[in-house]
Amino acid sequence: GELKRLECDIPYRVFLKGRLYPGLAMSRALGDAIASHAGVSCEPDLSTVELDRSCLFVIIASDGVWEFISNQEAVNIVNEAMGSERKVRAKAAAERLALEAFKRWVEEEGNVVDDITCQIICLR
């Protein structure tokens, strides 16, 4: 399967006036009505992707997964973890991807690890 995601050089973040932490990552703004006074919209951007028979699974993951793992690496990790028993192994594949993301955060950032969430949806 081919994955697509939005890529930004620097993620946008909104802060309360006079504060530097924690800040609201724009990817987390969905439904955040409190931040509306700072100009944050809780209206989602939607897009559709047409899937064909070659698509085996969908990976849904937080930015903590994508920070140090490319789209193709994620596909390879999931494909390898699922093997031939795709529907039975989706949970194991998600766990494997999350663990790899965690390892890469530790390698790159030491004791700082972003939130890591992922789900694999089997299509066939």
TrEMBL record:
Keywords: Hydrolase
Sample GO molecular function, one term: protein serine/threonine phosphatase activity
Listed Gene3D superfamilies: PPM-type phosphatase domain
Enzyme Commission no: 3.1.3.16
EC category: hydrolase
Domain PPM-type phosphatase, chain residue ranges per copy: 1-123
PANTHER family: PROTEIN PHOSPHATASE (PTHR47992)
UniProt protein name: Putative PP2C
